[in-house]
Design brief:
Elements: H1 19-29, E1 33-39, E2 42-47, H2 48-51, H3 54-57, H4 63-78, E3 80-82, H5 83-89, H6 94-100, E4 107-109, E5 118-120, H7 122-126, E6 136-137, H8 148-155, E7 177-181, E8 184-194, E9 197-205, H9 211-224, E10 229-232, H10 241-252
Parallel strand pairs: 9-10
Antiparallel strand pairs: 1-2, 3-5, 4-5, 6-7, 7-8, 8-9
Length: 253
């Protein structure tokens, strides 16, 4: 870890990295070292030639082939995406995507309502939908919603991490987590914890039909942090408080 190498920070400020931390992170960026595990929040580094399997080290790829593989991997991970979506996935430039996408293995498609060119992974097009069964709170950093323009285009859902927004200007809360249910984003919860109680400091629901899903997501989230109770403090639409708390009581009974 950076601590083992001499320390990660120069001062108590979280952003004030030491020279050692800067150096090892730069080596990580260039692939000279890799992260092999995490201990808490700390990365454990090792030399790439010692940690990466030999089968992955034998290729000596030029820049064009590296770009081609990154674009293909982005398309495979997204399933379908615009040029901007694919570029954002690995923080590439649009012109880098343009240079290789024609022979990346992705195929051009038209997506209703997008109004712009898109590309898809052929395997995704051939795979039957896996269902819309998952109901859960999503981290604001979840890859499903990380890119805000894509989230708005696919889900019609505008989300912003407000942790760095002044308290008086926050709309949905410090760490509001969207609720995924039935393949849609149906609300959001700003959570906290008090002892064995998960506190929903602020809840926004997309209508009364969302109450059961949000309740299930809250109960599941409580289990993540070893809580046995859930308390709702504020519901953005007061009329939806009763159906939400009623469903919570049923699930926790």
């Amino acid at each position: 870890t950076a601590t083992d190498l001499g320390g990660a920070k120069r001062t108590s400020e979280w952003w004030d990295w030491s020279g050692t931390k800067v150096a090892v992170e730069r080596a990580l960026m260039y692939g000279e070292v890799v992260c092999v595990e995490r201990r808490g929040w700390k990365r454990v580094y090792d030399l790439a030639e010692r940690a990466v399997p030999a089968a992955l080290l034998h290729d000596d790829l030029d820049d064009t082939e590296c770009l081609r593989r990154l674009v293909r991997l982005a398309g495979q991970s997204l399933g379908v995406g615009t040029r901007a979506d694919i570029a954002d996935y690995h923080r590439l430039k649009a012109e880098q995507v343009d240079a290789v996408i024609a022979d990346s293995g992705l195929v051009p498609v038209t997506v209703a309502g997008w109004g712009r060119p898109a590309w898809a992974d052929p395997a995704a097009l051939e795979t039957a939908p896996r269902g819309r069964h998952r109901t859960t709170l999503l981290s604001p950093f979840d890859s499903l919603i990380w890119e805000r323009a894509r989230t708005e285009r696919i889900f019609g859902f505008t989300h912003r991490l407000e942790a760095y927004v002044p308290r008086q200007k926050r709309v949905h809360g410090y760490f509001a987590m969207p609720v995924l249910a039935g393949g849609r984003l149906v609300g959001r919860v700003d959570p906290a914890r008090e002892g064995r109680t998960l506190v929903a400091k602020q809840v926004t629901l997309d209508g009364p039909k969302a109450a059961p899903a949000v309740a299930r997501a809250l109960v599941e989230a409580a289990s993540w942090v070893d809580c046995t109770n859930v308390r709702v403090e504020r519901v953005e639409t007061p009329d939806l408080r009763e159906p939400l708390t009623r469903e919570l009581a049923r699930l926790l009974d």
